[in-house]
Structures are given as structure tokens and as C-alpha cells.
Inverse folding.
């Protein structure tokens, strides 16, 4: 999976605003992780689908750019990195995502409690506009660590985890 130059291979897909975008991103993830263990491939598929959906739902629309953002998958020795980048509609939207990722990261081992608490809140109030479960699923079910960066109107979420290569 490592190219001859020794640098990790990065597979990137532009998330177009069309019905097949999440499936397109999942296929790129399959290609990037074809030498990884089944457990890793499954976790990456989950994370890529969740992050792609977020890029589509929350990425700022621009008349000049038909794409909502990008998803990149990089396998590097024994780790995998997924990077989701998109433009945000407002600084407030970016701050909400940043705060959510910070809360998830601080929870650490208590992500299960945060996840369950959010599910109970959604069951109690099914009309909430945003479920905000995708990032929690990525951590809770996929075993990823999240980080978030805001640069002006650009939001970047990075999901990382250990990944075993099957020889």
C-alpha cells in the first residue's frame, strides 16, 4: 500500500452534490483499504459514509463549485487517516462542529455514555433538526480519534485509528 517513494498513498474523492456521492466515497475508501484487515475496512467504510453525508448536508453551496467538499483516505504503515474538508455557511456552524468534536474527544472512554445520552435525547425529541450522531458513531463504533480545524470558511475533520495490514 505504500508507494515506492515511501510516502503514504492518499486517495481523494470530490463529493459532488448528487445522489451517488456517498457511495462514490465508499468505493474510494474500499480501494484505499483493500490491503487492510476486514475490521479496519468496515470501520473506514462507516467513517467515510458518515463524513461524506456531513459534507453533503452541511457544506456551503457555491454557485461556482458543484462539489460540496472532499474526502481523503490515507493508509500509512499501521494507521489510517480520513480527512473531510468543506466550506461552511457561517463561523457559528464551524464553531458548533468544533465544539462537538472537542466534546467527543474530551469524553474519551465515556463516548458510550455521550452516544447513549444523545440517542435518548433523539427518542424523546424526534423533531430535532440535526441528529449529530455521525461523528459519535465514527468514534464509538469505528474506533476513530477525531480532530477538527477551522481555517476561515473551511472546516476540516480528521478521523484516525490504528489499522492492520493483511499480508
Amino acid at each position: 500500500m505504500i508507494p515506492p517513494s515511501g510516502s503514504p498513498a492518499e486517495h481523494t474523492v470530490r463529493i459532488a452534490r448528487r445522489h451517488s456521492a456517498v457511495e462514490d466515497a465508499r468505493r474510494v475508501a474500499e480501494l484505499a483499504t483493500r490491503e487492510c484487515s476486514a475490521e479496519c475496512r468496515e470501520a473506514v467504510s462507516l467513517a467515510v459514509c458518515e463524513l461524506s453525508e456531513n459534507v453533503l448536508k452541511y457544506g456551503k453551496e457555491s454557485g461556482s463549485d458543484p462539489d460540496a467538499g472532499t474526502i481523503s483516505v490515507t493508509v500509512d504503515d499501521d494507521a489510517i487517516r480520513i480527512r473531510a474538508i468543506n466550506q461552511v455557511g457561517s463561523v457559528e456552524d464551524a464553531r458548533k462542529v468544533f465544539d462537538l468534536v472537542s466534546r467527543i474527544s474530551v469524553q474519551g472512554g465515556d463516548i458510550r455514555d455521550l452516544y447513549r445520552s444523545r440517542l435518548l435525547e433523539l427518542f424523546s425529541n424526534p423533531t430535532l433538526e440535526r441528529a449529530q450522531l455521525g461523528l459519535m458513531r465514527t468514534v464509538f463504533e469505528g474506533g476513530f480519534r477525531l480532530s477538527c480545524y477551522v481555517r476561515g470558511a473551511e472546516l476540516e475533520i480528521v478521523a484516525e485509528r490504528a489499522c492492520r495490514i493483511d499480508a
Q: What stands out?
A: Residues 30 and 41 are 7 Å apart (CA to CA). Residues 38-58 form the longest helix (21 residues). The two ends are 10 Å apart (CA to CA). The beta strands are 9-16, 67-76, 79-87, 145-151, 154-162.
